[in-house]
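Minutes, project check-in

Agenda point 3 was the complex the collaborators sent over. CS summarized: two entities, 674 residues total, and the question is how they sit relative to each other. Sequences were read into the notes so everyone works from the same version.
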Amino acid sequence: MSVLVDDDTRVVVQGITGGEGKFHAEQMMEYGTNIVAGAVPGKGGQEAAGVPVYDTVREAVEEENADTSVIFVPPAFAGDAVFEALDTDLDLAVAITEGIPTQDMARVNKRLSETDTRLIGPNCPGLITPGEAKLGILPGNIFAEGNVGLVSRSGTLTYQVVDSLTNRGIGQTTAIGIGGDPIIGTDFVDALELFENDDETEAIVMCGEIGGEDEEEAAAYIDDNVETPVAGFIAGRTAPPGKRMGHAGAIVSGSGTGTAESKINALNDAGVPVGDTPEEVADRIEEFLG
Amino acid sequence: MKLHEYQAKQVFADAGIPTPESQLASDVDGVLTAAQEIGYPVAVKAQVQVGGRGKAGGIELVDDDDEARDAADSIIGMDLKGYRVDQVLVEEAVDFTDELYVGITMDRGEGKPVAMVSTRGGVNIEEVAEEDPEAIAREHVDPSFGMHPYQARKAVYDAGVDRAVARDVSNVLMTLYELWENRDGSDAEINPLMVTSDDEVIAADAVMNIDEDALFRQPELAEMEEEAASGGDELEQKADEYDFDYVRLEGNTGIIGNGAGLVMTTLDLVDHYGGEPANFLDVGGGAKADRIANALDMVFSDDNVDSVVFNIFGGITRGDEVARGINEALEQFDEIPKPVVVRLAGTNWEEGMEILNEDLVTVEQTLEDAVQRAVEYAEEVNDQ
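CS then shared the predicted structure for the full assembly.
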């Protein structure tokens, strides 16, 4: 089973004529993703990665029945690109772009609440349903089909944990990288809900990091709503207070919330074991699956 | 990016927020001239990007030339929490009856801007927020409309600000929001906003943090950043030049990786295996060979570093590019200054392994093995 994406998903790539857009459109197609069009203002009528390019997302939807967008648009224009995706009532928009100004995302977030489109990202690796489709930049070869759902705020950490799972013969239903920015679309709680409602997902990995309170909220949600066993990992246990560690969200305020300790405690209290290393997370999942 | 107090005050003053008369000085003569022109008493305030300057001896109130000279002598050139003080702001001392707090920030939980007002200004507002959250009035703003004047008034009334100054304080709050919005602020704060005995309000301090991701559309502020970059940790300055996310830490195992979460995980594993991280260095996504070489150069130039672990899990980043960068950086040495352990996985890792010059580095297949090996190397150096 798949969560959010499968081999019928009809994808338009916004920014398909750019270097990253073209490279990853080809990688996605090679993986089996059904990319039907590109959308790049001023490039309508051209072809890129073997699919027709339209000036607007709306044309791609009308001409090619696209229902999902993957966005590889530079940060200065990416906020606008997400608005465009939301304006065409797509089922799903995945924003890969890193470095979108936070105020732009606050406005996107407001618009998002008025539409039925689901947004993943921005500043995320995307999502993958192994064997069916991948949307984004995840390296397809490390994933395997199986019954573990994975949600993570960090792209490369996702790869690390998936690698540990796949090496033990444990495959994944879907892996979702939600991104580490302060304002994102789909969050932990949304992803946990999707996995909880998916019949194929028998265990869940949740990878968080310091900063913000999303993991604490997710822990409360798990406590009340999630029957599927969850194992967690929190990056940044050794980060000193007050220092920003890359992600905009990854700063420890020093006021007690947002620290690795408070997140680990919250998860433990909700019955979620948290591994000290990615291998320990895989150990817990192995135990869950018996 | 954080503006200096004097820069933020200039931005606020230009927008119409009342600020005390002040001048920037960088030596004793400059302080004396400024103080005489403004008229005693004045405050001499260190211009460094750290909080708690007052407690650390970075702010002094002076009444005459002798005191001004002493303050200038002790503050200019001092080390304030790791930053050398090169400049001070000499500022008219405001005679106040009340100290308020006003601020705008992004509430990431709500995904919306929030305006805050409190009558408990002049103190550490984070402590107030912790101990007595009710003492801070909060008003969330719809980012697509901006703040309405009624919202500013509501926050001011809710906070219990004296009626005599309520109108002026809400005007300051409106202006602060517009600045925050137009200048792509992440935080804009005035603490304290002083109330004088004549019922005037005046911004005695000014904090303006700018969203780094929006600097492309804030060219004036980007110029200020260059100005503000003087002083501070040499390595962190170098990281700015190379455009790395870098944080210097206390330990001796250097760490380079791609992606914030994975680099933090590498730090945590160094700690887990008994070592101490010397730094956080994220090369970001899609790094090419020259960027990898710069990263190694950075970590090598930290005297505390005894070994280096490279942890790359390629998605958008390609293993062959990383390997080329590592070779490029190391081949220039007759003798490698510090042992380097490399772990490559993900996109093009096999091509990378073929390219990597294994005479120059230690290769490990897993993250755990790589970290343990780097910690061992660091310990060996320490034992010598």
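Noted in discussion: The two ends of chain B are 41 Å apart (CA to CA).
Follow-up: revisit at the next meeting once the mutant set is ready.
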